[in-house]
Design a protein that fits this description.
Chain lengths: 304, 252, 336
Amino acid sequence: MTRALVQAVRTLLAGAVALCLALPAAHAQPAQPAQPPQPAHSTQAAEAAVRTPQRIVSLVPSLTETVCSLGACSRLVGTDRFANWPPSVLQLPKLGGLDDAQVESIVALRPDLVLAAPSARVVRRLRDLGLTVQVFASDSHADVRRSIDALAATLGDAAAGPRLWAAIERELAAARDRVPPAWRGQRVYFEVSTTPHAAGTGSFIGQTLAGLGLANIVPPALGAFPQLSPEFIVRAQPDVVMAPRREISAMAARPGWAALQALGHDRHCGFDAAGYEMLVRPGPRLGEAAGLIADCLVALESRR
Amino acid sequence: MLQADQLTLQLGGRPVLRGIDCAFATGWTAIVGPNGAGKTSLMRVLAGLLPASKGEVRVGGQPFAALGSRERALRIAWLPQQAEVSGELTVREIVHLGRLPHLGLFTAPGPADEAAVDAAMAATECSAWAQRRLPELSGGERQRVLLARALATQAPILLLDEPTTHLDAPHQVALARLVRRLAQRQVVLTVLHDLPLALHADRVLVLRDGRIAGDGAPADPALQHALVRAFDGAVRIDTRGTHPLAVPALDD
Amino acid sequence: MALDLTVPATGATDHSRRRTLALGLAAAAALLLTAGLWVGSEGWAWPAEQAALIVGQIRAPRSLGALAVGALLGLAGALAQGLFRNPLADPFLIGTAAGASLAVVVVLAAGVLGASAATQWFGDIGLAAAAFSGALGGMLLTLLMARGAQHSLRLLLAGVVVGMVCGAVADLLVTLSPQAMRGRQFFMLGSTALLGWHQLALLGAGLALALPAAWRLSRGLDALALGEDTATSLGLPLARLRGALVLLLALATGLAVSQAGLVAFVGLVSPHLVRRFAPAPHGYTLLASAATGGVLLLGADVLARGLLAPLELPVGVLTALLGGGYLLWLLHRRAG
């Protein structure tokens, strides 16, 4: 009886292992997704429309915003769970985040383009499954500009990219002009998390601040989003503190933070949730975000 | 067959064995001595579990260094004082492990191995529990199983460290009889705290402070004297009967 | 040499239990594999041309992959518990988990910080390769600290120290590069979502290597169960045996972790279940633990996909809940 059992287990094991090794070889090339039907008489425009992506999945909220700002919002078929602008994308299927993207759902949507961020594991998996994935970094203004240009080209309207960027630059310039002279060169502490992490000079937020003519208490050497010690912040005595509104009200209660003169003298900008979200998203609303900061400074100036 | 040459052992800076020099031939040798005399350490060195600081152990003329661990295991079987209890293996599977020196890790057991296991279990009277597991047995029953494991190796030299612990009187006697039978063909060394039983051995080795304080047959007056001295007069030997008897010296 | 599982004749009960367990595991695996093909965020209603893609390219390799990863972890758990003679030993004890997660953080941080060629290359080799080499590296560091595999206690202590140090360095890196934290969190939870056919081939090769090797060393584990001294007196080359077992352990763990992240409890619980139902020598226990681990992880994976579909739970959360719950119940029984 034992021998029979042994033989059975042995065969099963060998079979299972052989299966594991053989199946991948058989399935190495995934079946190509069905091609969209070719129109009988194709005009140049129709051909162009056929070649450019028509079903786009975006796993990065800022890239979702970029696609919509480039006028291709109707071509989005799915987004990640955090995308919420423009409001129309809320209707689209949500596919998880970058790290827990639902592979099956993405594939089932038959996208011809997936947008993701660098170092997301799902990129490799989706490419293995035969999907086209484009990856964009969004760490600086230059990155945003590059992604806008590249996406515009992919979407088939290369001119739209520089057009959009020009509009953003106009908004940035307008915001800069609105900043009251008394506030030029003032040193800002921009909080990105309560740990606390601050927006450094090299980050896209820091670049926006610089573009507005404001200084940063964080020296460039500390990096993009450094974790600071509260001591450092208090010693630096920023002229303006910028953070979400609910954090501003709680900030003075943090041990030692009451020493921040900016808090005591009401020199702070507390942004509401939607506004703050816009500020921390490196996307096409950079200019609008800069405008928010300018508005706050104008309000502070008028209150003086 | 088993020789110790000037065995010296230091453990943690403390000298445990100081120049032990003796040879063991076929027969039953009981090693006795007060606590801390170095009995178990001597056993462990003789079993090859502890390297001596100085001196060497020789088996059949060959020093340990010349033998591989498996060759040594084929010649010397060792029963520890306390063994870890495995809950998964049946008694028979445990005794079967005694065949490891013959089989190594890879060889399948054959009829010779099964026969050896059967014989070992029969000798220690634990055949009835072949399918039971150690946690179900009493301390004494476990001891017999582990002894069977040592016997299953069929090694010419048997080192038994306190094999009578946990055994009740009838089983102590049974064990002593078994050891006597084995000693007719094998070298059997036992560490024993039980002096009366030790005096039934063919030869008694008395250890004290890491040195041999006495060595001889139980009937030898010189040995008996050494024994009494080694235990600081806590025992005395009663030679009135057919056999020397060690009794606690309570009345003196 | 033939793959010979013969052990000395055991009683009817023992034997029938082992057979029942083996058959039960096979049946469970078959059942769960079928379920694995059926369950997913897209349910069962999509156009026919997608069938090949969804079932063949996503669900099939993922289910088989879960089986393989679980098998590796179950095997590793049985090896760890036999090696350390401790029923609470876990395959992540000898620095493998710590090393793997540190390597993952390095890659994630490099991907974000990286501008130099070195960091670019590092980001390219991918998290899987990093996790695997990190696991082996952590194990080697532990062996170095313990100065070999001679003493189980020293090995365990070294593993704990390596774990703490690696964790601290990883935390430091995350402080310098907060974007790495998110990826690390998902790695720590474990996920079967990214298992494709390529990954399955790797896992299958690993199993084909590890299972026979472990089975051959199983008698040594049995002897070890009687104590180190007894095992030495039986002529076992203890240091070499331990070294081989540690290597096997690290290989199995490293491979599993590199493909699925840190999946909790599967390695810990599988040998327990086998021992409870069908106590046996290690020759059987190792293989049965592998099978049990595979079934457990596959079951958790199917649940993770199906419970709140189309939402997917991280599989590590489910294994932690189920495994942790089982252990709590075990402790309760022992105390009561």
